[in-house]
Amino acid sequence: MASANIDSHIKALIVGKKGEKFVDFASSLLQQTGFSTVYCSDVYSATLQISHGSPEEFLIVGSFKSLNAENGRFFDIAAKYNCTLCCFDVAGSPEKQEQIAVRCGNLVKFINSPEQLRQIIKIKDTVKEPIEKVSTAVASPEKEKPKKLDTSSFKTTQDELDALLEVFD
Amino acid sequence: MAGSHTDNPNILLVGDISRSFTDIRALGSLPCEVCTNALDAIDTASNNNFDVIAVVLSNAAQDIRSALRSLRQAAPGAALILLAQMHEEPLAMQLAAAGSNGTRLIDDYVICPVPKDQFITAFSPSRPEPEIPQSSSQADRQTQQKIRQLEELATTDELTGLKNRRYIWEFTKQIIAHAQKTDGRVTLMIFDIDNFKHYNDVYSHLAGDEILRQAAILMKKSCRAHDIVGRIGGDEFAVIFWDDPRKQKQFSESERRSRADHPREAIFIANRFRSLLKKTELPMLGDEGKGVLAISGGLASFPRDGKNIQELFAQADRALLDAKKSGKNRIYLVGRSEGDIDDIKD
């Protein structure tokens, strides 16, 4: 099993119900790559997590349907706190996606497969900054920049990830 | 965390508050912040100190329970109050009740539109009595309790315990406005006790009062929990049958429309009430007290028979008069004055 090497101040926040296919997959993947993971059943508790003044940076993962509740307002709040959002299961709503992309810029990633999530986590691993954050974002003074992930340990989990993907497919 | 207790409390209002207050300008004198949706409110409450968070039940959140839970955690020291329309009171009561773990989603609720004075009194921290020092939260609770008692007195018929005319009128107005938005249905029944004057004159007013009380009990017993029963005059009663939003979802659009065209449930309930009345024994009427009580009534439905409260009351009243003219002991449905509702099959 991989060791947790990502700096602990990056927290993965999974919005959705345990037992949902992608939620479980994302959870396993994130935990194995060293993220501290928090479950939120909906955007209300997710908002509470990100706005409660904690110094963590968040990588938020959830289905488009769950994150888009309350007319997509959660995206704006997450963007305000400079959170990175991985939004999956977005088929059939390109217009809404576009609107959100305009509002939140590169902080939002729309993904349609487990492989895409894996790629995003890989990018997060190889760059020091949180992924593709807009340059105008003002970092909280208390927050430290994330340290680089030890990629060698990440690679050792490849077989396990492939096995997970097989289960998911 | 609660804000500092100055003369005025810090208030966060959540949702579209346009229908929540009788005079929205009154808020200008209080330190209020407004968030139009629950997510912004959770965010704002997490980063500020509020004494009171008032949430509009109908439009603040898509999932009100979950939103309230998170709001409570965002501001654990703030009083969480719901702003509910009259027809939302059953849901507000549920949310105010303690759950299985003993916790309550909200501290209290107020029925809208909230008058300026009540709002300010309800949300201003009360000053402690000089002789008996107490925490402001205790004083707040007492103030809320007094307001609730006054509300109860102002909207209840003392003799029967039913709602009074003022409440019935306001509720009908609000529920029609709600039905207009949701394509819902509202049926109004007005009825009175046949020969009530005779009982009063022959057996005394005490006997008359007892008849009114019995009629009230039996009507409440006949109705569904969410229907509203009131006494609107001497021996005149009104019942408002309306769609329970918690059960509405199970009907398709076409089903709802057909149900709206024909107030079947109201007719069923009215007949159940008459049947109970027939079986009632009233000892104070002596030999005359068994199986003689009867009523005449009129039924009118929104939107079919009236587009607003005035039209609906006028139509139900006309049907009631027709029923009386035709020999009493019958209930007429507007547009079906050729026969009693007993004759309506489907």
General description of the model:
The complex is a heterodimer of chains A (169) and B (346). Helices cover 43% and strands 16% of the residues of chain A. Chain A has eight helices and five strands, in the order βαβαβααβαβααα. Chain A has helices at residues 21-32, 43-51, 64-67, 73-80, 94-104, 114-126, 151-155, 158-168; strands at residues 10-15, 36-40, 57-63, 84-88, 108-111. Chain A has a five-stranded parallel sheet, sandwiched between helices. In chain A, α1 packs parallel to α6 (114-126). Chain A is globular and about 35 Å long. Chain A starts with 9 loop residues before the first strand and ends with a helix. Mean pLDDT of chain A is 71; it is low at 1-7 and 127-156. Chain B is of the alpha/beta class and 346 residues long. In chain B, 42% of the residues lie in helices and 15% in strands. Chain B has helices spanning 38-47, 64-74, 89-96, 116-123, 136-155, 165-182, 196-203, 205-222, 245-248, 253-261, 264-279, 309-325; strands at residues 11-14, 32-35, 52-56, 79-84, 108-111, 186-193, 228-231, 236-242, 295-302, 331-333. The longest helix of chain B has 20 residues, at 136-155. Chain B is elongated. The relative contact order of chain B is 0.09. Chain A binds chain B through residues 41-45, 47-48, 51-53, 69-71, 73-74, 77, 80, and chain B through 37-40, 42-43, 46-47, 61-63, 66-67, 69-71, 73-74.
Protein traits:
heterodimer; A: 169 residues; alpha/beta; 5-stranded parallel β-sheet; 16% strand; globular; disordered N terminus; B: 346 residues; 5-stranded mixed β-sheet; 12 helices
Individual helix count of chain B: 12
β-strand number of chain B? 10
Radius of gyration of chain B: 23 Å
The residue fraction in helices of chain A comes out at: 40-55%
What structural category arises from helix and sheet content of chain A? alpha/beta
Largest sheet: spatial strand order of chain A: 2-1-3-4-5
Major β-sheet of chain B, in short?
5 strands, parallel
The side-by-side strand order for the widest beta sheet of chain B comes to 2-1-3-4-5
Q: Which residue ranges of chain B are poorly predicted, with pLDDT under 50 across at least 5 consecutive positions?
A: 1-6, 126-133
| Strand content range of chain A | 15-25%
Kindly, what is the distance between the CA atoms of the first and last residues of chain B, rounded to a whole number of angstroms?
Answer: 58 Å
